[in-house]
Specification:
alpha+beta; Helix Hairpins; Heat Shock Protein 90; 3 domains; 70% helix
Length: 335
Amino acid sequence: MSVKYQNQAAAIVNEQIARLRAVLAEVNSRLAPATSDLRQIARTIDELGVRSGHTGANAIVVRQLKQLQERQHALEVEVNDLHKAARSIEQLIRQTEMSSSTLTEDASQADPWNLALKAQIIQGREDERTRLAREVHDGPAQVLAHVLLGLEHGLTLTEHQNYERLRELLLQLREGSRSGLHEVRRFIADLRPPALDQHELDVALKELCARFDAAGIINVRSEGTRLPRLTPEQEIVVYRITQEALNNVVKHARNAQVAVHYAAVKGQVILLIRDNGPGFEPRAVAARTRGKHWGLASMRERAALVGAQLSVTSAIGHGTEIRVTLPIGELATRV
């Protein structure tokens, strides 16, 4: 008899999933042309910008640029809203499908914590792909588009034998290409921290803090003991959490003093990141963002994947402290 009711419940859930997929298809049908229009406008703005830089901007070009930039902003808002809607619906579909599986799986396979963690991992991967796509578009892709337009203008200058202006253009393109190469290298480094391939974790953390300090936006002081060798996954998580925490300070607490401490204590790696920035009220932020403060959420997800605990303590006017506790057991060794 119970199987009968489970099947009825599963049919209801499947119907709801089908309706959600229909809504998602409608969102995506609007998202595709809006994204295409946004890319076309970005290319047109780049082309006008290059031409105005080479020939001097007149009133008509300035007016065209202004109109295009206003349209670009409106499309960016629309595309971002559609992306958010699509992600929310996709997450709801996945959660509903996971919940539906509890009607047929046994209790051990349908553990709510495991289902929630799976959903977080999937969502985290999707968010990471979206972030990477945005960085490629806003960084290397824009530089390459600018260089391409510059080369096309260079051909025109060659035809007119304007070699003096051509030399100036080539110098500009050389600097732009160097900037693009730097962006690509930074992008690659973000995908896999080369410091972890070259050094032990404690040395990599020290170098990471030194780079943030050298940038001059925040003041970072690091202090710690030699850490045991962890698994590659654990080391990446500790490194990325530190990187994300420092990025958050750069975004929200410029000129702040930051102290980063790390040590191995009684079978655990302890990581503490404290700043004297403006701080925030965690509950208020969670309520305002509905628990989706992506920086903090990303750090918590990373920590959970390797069995670590992450806590955030903050108050307005009293800075922020992030604490990570990672059990290392008997597998950790010193090199």
